[in-house]
Amino acid sequence: MSAKKSGLQKEVLGLYRRALRMVRTKPALTQPKFLLFVRYNFHTQSSSVSPRDIAAIEHLLRRGQRQLEMYEQPSVRDCQISQAMNDWEQSQRESRTTSR
User: Of these four, 12, 34, 45, 62, which has the most CB atoms within 10 Å of its CB?
Assistant: First the structure.
């Protein structure tokens, strides 16, 4: 059984789930780009902050919520993917295939 999650952990997971739901509202052709955008940003932000740095996590949560509100707008139909995001996705795919 997993350990009980703190309130902050629940907020982060809630934001991630909300972001994944937002991806499903976007046009089918752009959903993979939005999904990569969400996964990359959560991964890079989580690895850049100590789990004990509550103030930084709260700041990132507020920033993420504001950013997600912007991306949830129906007028937002596409997003830009950087080369760093593509490289990260490729490395994730390679690590999954080599670990099998």
Answer: 34
Q: What b-and-e string marks burial along 53-68, b requiring 16 or more CB atoms within 10 Å of the CB?
A: eeeebeebbeebeeeb
The per-residue pLDDT for range 3-19, each reduced to its tens digit, is: 888 899 999 999 999 99
Taking each helix axis as running N to C, give the angle between helix 31-47 and helix 54-71, from 0 to 180 degrees, rounded to the nearest 10. Answer: 170
Closest CA to 38 of 9, 97, 79, 91: 79
Average pLDDT estimate for 53-67 = 96
> For 81, what's the count of Cα atoms within 13 Å in the CB-facing half-sphere?
17
pTM of the model: 0.88
Evaluate whether 23 touches 32 at the Cβ level (below 8 Å). Answer: no
Q: What is the dihedral of CA 25, 31, 35, 36, to 10 degrees?
A: -150
